[in-house]
Amino acid sequence: MALIDRIMAQRRAKVAQWRAQGIDPYCNRFRPSHSVAEILGLHGASDRQALEALNHTFALAGRLVLIREFGKASFAHLQDGSGRLQVYLQKQTAGPEVYARFKKLDLGDIIGVTGALFRTKTDELTLMVQDFVLLTKTLRPLPEKFHGLTDVEQRYRQRYLDLLVNPEVRQVFQRRAALIRHLRRFLETRGFLEVETPMMQPIPGGATARPFETFHHALDTTLYLRIAPELYLKRLVVGGMERVYEINRNFRNEGLSTLHNPEFTMLEFYQAYATFDDLMNLTEELFVSLALELNGSLTLHYQGQLIDFTPPWQRLDLKDSLTLVGGIPPEVVRDREALLALAQKEGVALRPGEGYGRALTKLFDLKVEAHLLQPTFVVGYPTETSPLSRSNDENPQVVDRFELFIAGREMANAFSELNDPDDQRQRFEKQAQAKLAGDEEAHALDEDFLTALEYGMPPAAGEGIGIDRVVMLFTDSPSIRDVILFPQLRPEK
């Protein structure tokens, strides 16, 4: 019999013993009076005399993560969702019956304890247990702290164990929650309204990506998990909701990597009577405020690199970046045929209907993106690759759009919105032709959205920010899987 099977058999036997003694090993009658954090906050600085004068009994619930027995006394560490506190049982103080029951417990068991606070000889704040209640008898042993849960993929698959034994992992997700709270406050103080739009859509739109497909039997229709909320948020702008935002999930049927998960969280917001220039300024303000809120400084270290959020940030034209950063001669960048030849040489696969614009952006991905460590706005994107963006008034070959890059990766994408319904229809039709030619990521033609535009959408700008990547940045996490509680993984063999 394997070791784990023997341990589980022993623990199941203990469950039977508890029940035979009339004790429910999974009871729900204990109510803690304080959390560990509350106890530390109230009395963490109290000396021995102050604790003795308290004359107060505390009730605390948590998981046993350390037990040290010394004959007629035992020390243990009790961990709840807020922290860890030492507890102490003495046979003479708690009584032989309570102490005997305590010695039957195993690491990982969840208990409720009552007692008074005191300080040990080493001055550690400790709870002197007078009585305890078994709340959950665990059947499987916890992984040993230093050797039991080191496999990264196991940590992702069994995130509950990862959270239990690695406090720094809990801190990542606490910081994630704080970051999202700050984003909401930032936008709401500027007049943005939080909304929710459909996750299942009859026509996937708002981004170039392959969607997940499902079927609604009652409606007898195919639906798609959304790849972006964009077209629905724009409908709200048509409806007079001039500043809206949504923080929610998007789904894209794409590969897995340290930067990509098929299900991810996006902040997307729209502002009427604004341009992409306005959103560049707003985005600078947003990240600066995040840095000060979460880091207390305009600089942070990410994977060994110092990132400086001090404004103003660099603004770089896409074509110029291919020369200044990517090292491609300017005469090649400006020559359509020469650039297409270079793209082919670099292994860029041009999809049906694509040409110079696609070559520009793919060479940027290959030659430039990874080198943009400091916050940089890249502008001058080709119209060919931006079917929902407003064309530049002076040069219709490019659109009023920027992408923000920090630490060598895209963090945000924004543009002045295309609100001319006829222009939008023509671009949709070009995308439809590309889809017929085999491009699975091309936009579908959305007649209802075009109808909405025909009612008139005010000039506006919109932006999408990848929450998971921002969390990676502010928690120094190398992989997107480190900041998603339950990331998508390949099936176990």
Short overview:
With 493 residues, the protein is α+β, with helices and mostly antiparallel strands. Helices cover 35% and strands 24% of the residues.
Verbal overview:
This protein has 493 residues and is an alpha+beta fold. The chain contains 17 helices and 18 strands. The longest helix has 22 residues. It is elongated, with a radius of gyration of 29 Å. The strands form 4 sheets. It has an 8-stranded mixed sheet, sandwiched between helices. A 5-stranded mixed barrel has the order 1-2-3-5-4. The protein folds into 2 domains: 140 residues, OB fold (Dihydrolipoamide Acetyltransferase, E2P) (Beta Barrel), CATH 2.40.50; 278 residues, 2-Layer Sandwich (BirA Bifunctional Protein, domain 2). The two termini are 23 Å apart.
- Largest sheet, described in full? 8 strands, mixed
**CATH evolutionary superfamily of the largest domain:** Bira Bifunctional Protein, Domain 2
Main CATH class of the largest domain:
Alpha Beta
- Mean pLDDT across the residues is 94
- Return the structural class: alpha+beta
The percentage helix is: 25-40%
- Oligomeric state, counting identical vs distinct chains: single chain
Number of domains: 2
Residue fraction in strands: 15-25%
**CATH fold group of the largest domain:** BirA Bifunctional Protein, domain 2
Strand order of the largest sheet: 6-10-11-18-17-16-15-14
Tally of helical segments: 17
User: Low-confidence spans: pLDDT under 50, at least 5 residues?
Assistant: none
